[in-house]
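Hi U.,

Before I forget, here's the chain from the pilot set. I'm dumping it here mostly so it's searchable later in email.
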Amino acid sequence: MKRISFAEFGGPDVLRLVEAEEPHAGPGRIRIAVRAAGVNPVDWRVREGQVLTAHPIELPAGVGLDAAGVVDEVGEGVEGVETGDRVFGEGSGTYAESAVLSAWARMPEGLTFEEAAGYPSVVETALRVIREVGVRPGQTLLVSGASGGVGSAVLQIARDRGVTVIAVASAANQDYLRGLGALATTYGEGWGERVRGLGPVDAALDLAGSGVIRELVGLTGDPRKVISIADLDAPKLGVRFSGTAGSVPDALAEAVGLIARGKLHIPVEKSYPLAEAAAAHADSRAGHARGRRVIVV
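Structure:
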């Protein structure tokens, strides 16, 4: 079995395509033949050694949390899924030809494997930060770094819940954000005033880690109304850093419902073959995504 692995922390160049033993599904787990794996910022943060407290690992280690594929092994005690089922979910070492999942759901009708692989962690994160920031129907949520996977999910879920969204992203992504129902504006000089011109802000999310925490606190008037998933220094300014996942099975179930109702669609911006995982990480770290990046196996 081929998989992506790294034996030391560092840049994308530490990633290697190697031969490895096939994993097996233990109790409460399933194994899939991976068709596609989602590329998430946590993947390269772990590779760089940034988030070892939340994600302790032993080297050499595999890469990846999200995947979509076909079930080929069912662990003891697992019910409701059979070999041959098409599923998407979360596990470990998913940049590989085979991976074990700890949380999964059947793929919604109409999704490709590439599309499905982009949902699990993204939707869990979006649901979690919306809940943690406490925004309610009728209020306005400001989202910085809004065009990526998590941002795309946040915008659609918040709008479905009756929340107005002001989205900040690069100039190239303004039409995309407006197409998701957001009030959109760009970064650059005077961006805070442009946000104020769109309306008062009740809560804010930092999804890109682009050094805007002070401005977000100023726009909301209270650091407790700001959540970051990307700036590890946010707590120094009284802002909560959200990095611990909630219930992935619950998030997958909600994602399936939203997709079925036509309320959630996250486009795949770019796909990479397994051997080009390093390029996928470099592009992910550079930001400016419109939707998701995925590894195709």
